[in-house]
Amino acid sequence: MSDPNPDEFQDLRPLLFSIAYRILGSVSEAEDAVQETWLRYAASSTQPDSVKAFLSTTVTRIAIDVLRSARVRREEYAGPWFPEPLLADPYDDPARAAELADSVSMAALLLLERLSPLERAVFVLREVFGFGFPEVASTVGRSEAACRQLMVRARRHMDSGRPRYEADRAEREKLAARFLDAFRDGDVDGVRDLLSADVALIGDAGGKGPQWGDRFVGSENVAGVLAALMPLFDRIDAGVELREVNGQPGAIFHDRSGDILSVWSLDILDGQIQAIRTLNNPDKLGHLGPVADAWAALREAREPTE
Fold it and tell me: RNA polymerase sigma factor 70 region 4 type domain spans which residues (predicted)?
C-alpha cells in the first residue's frame, strides 16, 4: 500500500478521540486508543477504501476491548466513579451539536456506564455521531439486525434516566457564577438559595484524595457540607476558575501555587443546581495540569489559627 497519510489521520483525530472518550469515559485511555489506531493504520499492508471507516472501526474496537477490562476495575473502585473531566471536545459538527453536547455531560456518561460495551459503542456511533446501521454493523462486527436490537436496548436505558438541563447556556453560566461567587465569599445563604430541594453532592476521590462523603442529598445537607468547606478553602487561599466541564458549567479549584485541587461539575435546571459532582482523584486530573497535594492542603486548612 501507499504510505499512510499523517495529515489525513490528524484531520480525523478529533473524531476518533471523541468516539473513544464517549465509549471509555477516560481522556488518557481515549488518547491511548487513538495512538494505537495510528500504529495499526501505519502497519496495515492494504490501503483501505475509506480511511475514515477504517480508523473509526479500529478505534471503536480498541475502545470496546479496553472497556471490557476497565469495567472490572471500576466495579472495585473506592467510592463513586466519575469519568475523567473533559474541558473541550475536540470534535465539532454543527449538524449534530445537540447530540454531541448532551452525550459528553457527566450525567450522560454515567448513564452510558450502565450499558454493555457493545450497546455503548452502538449507541455512541448511531445516536451521537449519526453513523448508518450498515456502518455500525461493520464497525462492531455484528449484523444490522443485531445492532438494531442493541440500539433499542441502549436507548431504553438512556431514555429512562436521560438528564435534563437548562436550555439557555448563558443562564446556566450566570447561575454557576453566582453559586461560585457565593461559595468563595462564604455566603451560605446565597449558596443555599441556588440549590434545588433534592440537590445531590457526589464526590469521586478514588481513595486517593479527600472524600467529602459518597453522596449527600437535599439542600440543607448539601449546604451544610459546602459551609464546612468554605473556611477550609479560604485558609489555603484556594482560587476558583469558572470553566465548562463536560459541556456543563463547572469549576477548577487551585491552590495558591496554581496547582489543581479539585474539579466540580454542575447540573442546572429551572434556575437551580440539581447536582454537584466533585472530582478529587489526582489520577483523573493530571491531563488538566499540575495537581496539588490535596491531603497536604487539607492538613494546612485544619491547622489551628493563632
Answer: 107-158
